[in-house]
Amino acid sequence: MPLIIKDEYPENLFREDGKRLDGRDVNELRPIKMEVGVIKNADGSAYLEWGNNKIFATVYGPREVHPHHLAKPDKGVLRVFYRMATFSVFDRKRPAPGRREKEISMIVADCIEPLLFLELYPGTSFEVFIEVIDADGGTRCASTTVAALALADAGIPMKSLVSALAVGKIDGKKVVDLSGIEDKAGEADFPIAITWYNEEISLLQFDGDMDLEEMNEFLDLAKNALKDVHQIQLEALKSKYIKLQEETIQTKENNDKKGDE
Fold first, then answer.
1. Where are the domains of the chain?
2. Rounded to whole angstroms, what are the CA distances from 33 to 1, 121, 186?
3. Residue 123 burial class via C-beta count within 10 angstroms: exposed 0-12, middle 13-18, buried 19 and up
């Protein structure tokens, strides 16, 4: 991929061979890596690499609500704190949370809250802290995906996971999983999230130019791609518990050997 200096972008977002600048086909996801249980002192945690995005999510709760006036007597409260590290973008970001970070915190909370059985935890809170270490397009979608994974790792009752990504249009072509360059220089950006217990849309935003027919095509593209993202989430959770099972079996075998000696 060519080096992009600040806001100077190439005229063409496709290479001569028809591939996108990073070598992907129009319907191909960026490389994705997910892992859970990465922060030991958290109740639940997850780490995600999605293209050049690198994001941690930690979960704490249920615990006492501070300040107390935010507590609800009939259900728990979900609070999400999305932050970008000062070095996560090309130009150094100010340390204080900006308007965009507050907006994305709200978006992620609204997207995830319907999945949780918060009525089981009245008067308490669950707090999700999202830290973007490296940003390269689609951080709100990636953050929603990794936050749901961290909540599942915490053992909090959930109806299902939620998966999110952005589809869009660049150089007149519909593409899946916009990179940072494509997000800024493309013609349309369409973030979407799906909750899998009912396959309903829990996040839908739009910026750019498209007609109704194109929107329906984007929805089909997004759903097919999100099935792959969901599978990666499930595999990340399964791998942790397979590892725990193997460790338990190994510990038992070692104890049995010591008992026989």
1. 32-260
2. 20, 32, 25
3. middle
Residue entry with tokens 């090309």: 90
> Each residue of 33-60: pLDDT tens digit?
999 999 999 999 999 999 999 999 999 9
CATH architecture of the domain formed by 32-260: 2-Layer Sandwich (3.30)
The verdict on pTM exceeding 0.85 is yes
Q: Helix 99-112 to helix 139-153 angle, to the nearest 10 degrees?
A: 50
The residue assigned the tokens 């915190």 is: 105
When pLDDT is cut at 50, 70 and 90, the band that residue 260 belongs to is low
Question: In whole angstroms, what is the distance from residue 147 CA to residue 143 CA?
Answer: 6
pLDDT single digits (tens) 188-198: 899 999 999 99
